[in-house]
Amino acid sequence: MMSPYDVPYMERTRLYYEAQGYTIPYQWAHHDYTPFSKLTKPLPQLRVGLVTTAMPDTEQGRAERKLYSTPSRPVPDSMFTLGLSWHDTVTHTRDVGSFLPIEALLAIESEGGIGSLAPHFQSVPTAYSQRQTIEEDAPVILSHMKKDEVDVAILVPL
Fold this sequence. Notes:
Layout: H1 9-19, E1 47-52, E2 55-56, H2 59-63, E3 68-71, E4 79-80, H3 102-110, E5 116-117, E6 120-123, H4 130-147, E7 152-156
Parallel strand pairs: 1-5, 1-6, 1-7
Antiparallel strand pairs: 2-4, 3-6
């Protein structure tokens, strides 16, 4: 039995695609094996990157859902989240730190818990296309992360 706080994302997605006229139900990504890589250095020596599904709260970010590489400093006061799905009766997106933990990571950095926070964070639109994610979005994000010399990334989807 679902609680009033549960969000049936998979069922909502199936119904959404059905309403759009798709005759084949959406196929969720499934992997029998999840790759894992040991860290090559201790956390206090690592540069940490962030990836979010929220868009920059700019004129362009509000108008065009695409990949963005945005400076981590200054910490954004807001992010554009309209049009994204989250359970808005039990949460909100006014607290940017709850879904883009830049300030928390800067505090951890100042305490020596991580080497540094990457100079940019990455915004990637929520896409239900596995092909687009694998073939288009992921390589661009990887390129940005390599440019910023990121060792490990935290994915914070909204």
